[in-house]
Amino acid sequence: MTLTDEERGQLTQIEERSSDWRERRRAQTVLLLDQGLSIDAVVTQQKIHQETVACHRDAWLVRGFAGLRDLPRSGAPRKLSEAHKQVLCAWVQGEAYTAPQLRSRLSEEQGVQVSVWLVQSALKEKGYVWKRSRHSLKIRDEATFREVQAEIEEWVEKSKLGERALAYLDEAGFAQAQPNRSAWTEKGKVHLMPAERGKRLNVLAALISRGELFTAKFWETTTAALLGGFLGLLLESVGRPLTVILDNASIHKAKEIQPLLALLKQKGLTLHFLPPDSPELNRVEKLWHKMKYEWMAFKARNAATLEANVDKILGGFGSDYRMTFC
């Protein structure tokens, strides 16, 4: 076998730089044969079979550089036909199936044996994603959402100038049984967590624009009266006009505290109710998630340890426990 200088140069580049190891090996085979080595000598140097060396040589002689690459392969037939994919789409439109359930139904009704991964891939190909289901089809008004978002940004700037204070208000309950979360677990076993039953510790919190957290906690239901008292203490603590951002919970608009809210309004309090389905606009919402799923250890608690853990986080907010907003 005799190569031209140009062919040797190109083959050398392929041997040194190709990302496909098969191409590199085949190029090396051709170069070794060009040096006058016998097939047996190439077999010894490359540690491959005689038939392989002969195939590489013949492919080069017939197809040249194209012979260094694999020919297209037909592959195995598809396990899921287009008809099967359409059946999957029809099923998931009618009911909330998991991928394992779909695989079982395919086996039972269509006689098709496939993996869960293949079911997931087929649905993704058809434009489906795995997401949480909903009880209603209420969709927030995006125009209103963006408008309120812009207003809040203006209020944030005004609070930086000292014109008004701004606070994000919300309430949350903490149970003695820690919310479930994922955990590394030995195969075949279950990570059990004891669930203490008892009263919930309810917390009212206002995240003030200057970074402070004003809170109150109760071993009882948070009522409109408690909220009214909390707002009065919050306004007094801030010491200047205050805008409070909050959601549309019933206790926030209860008739029984309207006279008190009217009085607080005269003293500088403004309540701004967020549009429905807009939790992202209330920054204090992030506090609850951080507390329950990151800052509090995943363990069962009695009433005393629960209150102590909550107190530790609320008391250390801003120093030991911090949040950032992008």
Automatic annotation (TrEMBL):
Residues 166-302 form the Tc1-like transposase DDE domain. SUPFAM superfamilies: Homeodomain-like. Gene3D superfamilies: Ribonuclease H-like superfamily/Ribonuclease H. Transmembrane segments: none annotated. Pfam families: DDE_3, HTH_32. It comes from the Bacteria. InterPro entries: Homeodomain-like_sf (IPR009057), RNaseH_sf (IPR036397), Tc1-like_DDE_dom (IPR038717), Transpos_IS630-like (IPR047655). GO terms for molecular function: nucleic acid binding. NCBIfam families: transpos_IS630 (NF033545). PANTHER family: TRANSPOSASE. This is IS630 family transposase.
